[in-house]
Design goal:
It is built from 18 helices and no strands. The relative contact order is 0.10. It is mainly α. The protein has two domains: 158 residues, no CATH class; 216 residues, no CATH class. Helices cover 69% and strands 0% of the residues. Helix 13 packs antiparallel against helix 14 and helix 13 packs antiparallel against helix 17.
Amino acid sequence: MELNECYFESFVDTVDAVHEVAKFWEFVQSMLGSLYQFGALKSKALMSFYLYIKLMNSYTYSVGWDQSSLQATLNKAMELHKKVHQQLREEFVRCPNYDQFNIDSVASEFYNKLEFGNELSQSMYIQEIRLCIAKNMFDVKKVMYKNENGRKSNRFGIFHRMSFQCLFLNEFGRRFDIYYLGWAVDVQFNWEAIGDTILSRLTEAKRLHLKKDSLELLINYQITCIDYLKIFILRFTLIHLEYLKMFGWLLAQTDRSIITGTDGNDYVEEWYFILTDFIKLLYLKHDDFFNNLLWSLEENSLYVYYSEGNETIRSHVQLELENILSTTFNVSVCEPIVLNVKSKDVSTLKQEIEENSIGKARAFVNHIKGYFDIDFRIIQTIIGLKNNSDF
């Protein structure tokens, strides 16, 4: 970043300077992949740097500056570059002075080289910058390969999963995604109330900002998408609990025992497996709510059919749903669950549970598996950077 600032000072054409800086995205993506592979992806500044150079490719849109004024454009490019540069310096301030990658050492070597040489033309000066950066990149790659020596490596797979497209969840949140999913998977919810939130946060995260933190915007967008998907599974769970309560009541009316029979046990187990698939997909293994919900279903599977046990779990699910709607989407209204049961007959109700509850929920999980094809362990790792320290 120190030497890249020279590009903005040297290039007459700001667009050429931007492209010169932005072309290093593959190298930085490899660095992030290598760090993640060995459990060391903890740098917010490096993630911000990656977002910066990727978004710089479309900088005229991202920053919204006026192309009619070249100097104003150049000034904004420089300001943005210095902002990210400062983030890197502040985070890596503890890098030892004797380290080969210490920025002051690298920059000093470059400037000393120029000082003892003849006065260079612009093209030669730019070439010297390129050579110095290339040497630094080569040295970093050697360290990356050394770290991987003797350890199982999946360089290509990790590189793909760290791609811009994956980090932005295939740009999930476009109007078609939101309303199609809401229409195709009916969980009795008005999606118009929250659909625009995801789209606006996606749009905001895809822009570079001088005043805002691009990484924070990306993380907010990722959290919003995950919470949106949670709404589906929570609404499905409330529907399923209503079905199970009605099912237990019908069995009691016909003197059929839930405890000794097999009429109902499978439906709690089925739901446990559906939730487990959902948790694995979004890598929610550290989510306290979902861990407690799985524990409740596993430990109290028979009591879910009785009003008291059912209501206890239902109230926790409802509270979590309302919390997500309020915190993430600023929505306070949540429609009540209404079951349109065709007949209060055990066999008919079983069919409705299998089709309208279990069947639809399983189809929903399978659909988002196919849509995303994303490693949510990486997404959750990035989200975790938000809690390392305040933005």
